[in-house]
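It would be a great kindness if you could assist me with a short task in structural biology. The matter concerns a single protein, recorded as an amino acid sequence and a row of backbone structure tokens. Kindly check, if you would, that the fold set down in the tokens agrees with what the sequence suggests. Thank you for your consideration; the sequence and its tokens are set out here:
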Amino acid sequence: MWYNKEMVTPQSGFLGNIDREFEEREIEKQAQAQKLGYVDFSKFSANPDILKLVSLEDAKNANAFPLSKNGKKLSIAVVHPEDGKTKSFLESLTKQDLIPDVFLCSASGFAEALKSYDSEFLKKKEVERTTGFEEHSGANLKEKIKDLSDLEKKLDSLHAETALSEIEVAAINTDASDIHFQPTENGAALRFRIDGVLHNVLEVSAETTKKLVTRIKYEAGMKSNISNIPQDGHRSFEVNERSIDLRISTLPTPFGESVVMRILDASRGLKSFTELGFSETAREKIENALEQKTGLILVTGPTGSGKTTTLYSMLSQLNLPERKIVTLEDPIEYHLEGISQSQVDEEQEYDFENGFSALLRHDPDVILVGEIRSKDTAHLASEAALTGHIVLSSLHTNSAVGSLSRLRNLGMENFNIAPTISAVFAQRLVRKVCPHCQTKVPLPHSKKIEAALEQIQKISSKIEIPDEIAKAVGCEKCSGTGYKDRLAICEAFVMTDEIRKMVLKEQSEIEVLKVLRKNDKFLSLFEDGLIKVFSGETTLEELYRVTS
């Protein structure tokens, strides 16, 4: 093959990229061999608040970089875990009542990460949408409501665009996932959904509600003069160099239009399976499924259960230079380097069905389809999985085993389901209990808990059953809720030959579940969540709320 030598020179960066990829692959193998986490800093976004926990001097001296913090657990990336200075640094963390969670990183990656300590990166930035507003990410909800209460008094005199900007930035500051304008007889209630729970923020007068809804519809490309039918729209804007996408939906009600604005931050950093909350058993099943060369991997659960985040974390792990990855999404919630991402547009007759047919012509190794909604999409995903592709997708079911019936209801035959499915992961999100104000209460006794304990102890005798568990209280740091952030609880199964035979015979979900609980280290959502209650990550009340 002819080539120009000048095209392949260190100055061009081509060889440098190859060396870096080789270095990262070698470090990843070492991490697996040592049973440690691994981080590739070319795909990692540093958090300024976490950087403040370790000084630049200490980071350089110990070759250690702080990644994230969960309660007392501090995730730390190190270059050489056996180095004396690194060991001393990790020991110093334990004296500060912190638990170091060690990840391996490459020397090149570590050098790149140190640039994050640059003063320009660490200092607070100002937010701009259309007018200027200051952002304090994760701000106390009560303080923000107080600010908005002051805004409530002057809403009627503000331009609709200005008022809407303040509301949107306030939602971003408090890490809200959705903004709700819920019509009332006298106007609308403004509500934010934070950590999966709706919070009342303020009341908006009827006249101002009409102005705001008209402005929302105008900016989202909807028809402002139509209010008697549902409409969908979207728009984007920049906040602190982050691209924010709003997916907006209206619904007519007797008191006016209900509006929901879903906030999507396309620049958010991806989390590892451990950071998402998956147990060691679940992580092993995910790893085994991703190591397969073909097959359909499903993540199931209701809306807002974190399915898309889990699918992107899987994609990130599969994203290697030798693989072609193509996605079909609605909408694109994260932007990933090295992956061809496409967004469906049903107004242009570009839906999951014809989009799937098109992406197969792009010679992919891995395919992500945002959701299996129809018979046609289910069959296309099945055919792709049977013809040498890894296919990732989501499905709306209440349990992992329930995916089998759901696929049948979509029109798939048992002889297609059995060889196609590689693994199914059902998940929910539970709120983490606030570490600053929680209290302890005795572990209650009930038949449900005793039955769960019996199954948990079959899986692992190492799990300690505490006498006391956490209970939420509420303080200023958690906005009085008793909780901050969320983590996943999961039930999962990997398809085995025995389960495939049962699917072909169309045996009931109950029979399949019996076999899984006997042979597959299978824990239900409640049982997996109970382990997290025992470890102090969440509360029993929160677990019952989510799994009831």
